[in-house]
Design a protein that fits this description.
- Belongs to the SurE nucleotidase family.
- Keywords: Hydrolase, Metal-binding.
- It holds the Pfam family SurE.
- It comes from Synechocystis salina LEGE 00031.
- It is an enzyme of class 3 (hydrolase).
- The chain is of the alpha/beta class.
- It has one domain: Stationary-phase Survival Protein Sure Homolog, Chain: A, CATH 3.40.1210.10.
- It is built from five helices and eleven strands, in the order βαβββαβαβαββββαβ.
- It has a nine-stranded mixed β-sheet with strand order 3-4-2-1-5-6-7-11-8, with helices on both faces. The chain has a two-stranded antiparallel sheet with strand order 9-10.
- α1 crosses α4 and α2 packs parallel to α3.
- The longest helix has 15 residues.
- The radius of gyration is 17 Å and the shape is globular.
Length: 225
């Protein structure tokens, strides 16, 4: 299989290297030059998009994750079988899919007729991510999803829990995305408002992707255009 790798954390982020390891060090990288977390499905249409080659099969794009997918499947790697975005440093569950650049990259792939997977890692602060562990479980997820049916205009959204030594090994659970809102809270300093919503305190509808991931398992949802 031919893989196109991208993300929204930027081409120098450790998550895309972990993704590359999970795929057996295969795939062409077309990823943002800079961090674009939370940019949603923004695309660049009114100015030039600069691209810098970073060695064989690696391209740093001065644009958004959706721009990277467009350039990747149309120009750099049209023979791609799967577009895979991640491993994102932070969860992308439920309503997050509308905000996430990681998810937007694979949504764009599905729009253009390609199979795609977004994979993210929830951060249970103050823990830090063990990227070796994340790569291992990403590989297990991929080996499962290669065997699953994926209809046209659908894509996979995967969220890894924040495992640490001593925790039970996670299960892979196919589930539905949460439709609950993110926590919306602000502090005010003069005329400035600062977002203070706590991700870990968001609502957990039983059986939703949030509940599955926060409970220590791997949440797999199938989303549709």
């Amino acid at each position: 299989m031919n893989f196109l790798l991208t993300n929204d954390d930027g081409i120098d982020a450790p998550g895309i290297e972990a993704l590359y390891e999970a795929l057996g060090k295969r795939g062409v990288w077309v990823a943002p030059k800079n961090q674009h977390s939370g940019c949603g499905h923004k695309v660049t249409t009114d100015q030039a998009i600069a691209v810098e080659q970073r060695g064989k099969d690696r391209y740093a794009v001065d644009g958004t994750p959706a721009d990277c997918t467009r350039l990747g499947v149309v120009h750099f790697y049209p023979e791609v079988d799967w577009v895979i975005a991640g491993i994102n440093a932070g969860g992308n569950m439920g309503i997050d899919s509308y905000l996430s650049g990681t998810v937007a990259a694979v949504r764009e792939a599905a729009i253009l007729g390609h199979k795609a997977i977004a994979i993210s890692h929830w951060i249970n602060k103050p823990r830090t991510i063990d990227w070796v562990w994340a790569s291992h479980w990403a590989n297990a997820v991929f080996n499962t999803l290669w065997q699953e049916d994926l209809p046209p205009q659908h894509f996979w959204n995967v969220n890894l829990p924040h495992w640490q030594s001593g925790d039970p090994e996670p299960e892979l659970i196919f589930c539905e995305p949460s439709r609950d809102p993110l926590p919306v809270a602000f502090t005010i300093e003069g005329s400035n408002f600062f977002y203070r919503g706590e991700y870990s305190q968001r609502p957990r509808q039983p059986g939703s992707d949030i509940d599955v991931c926060f409970s220590g398992n791997i949440a797999i949802t199938q989303l549709k255009i």
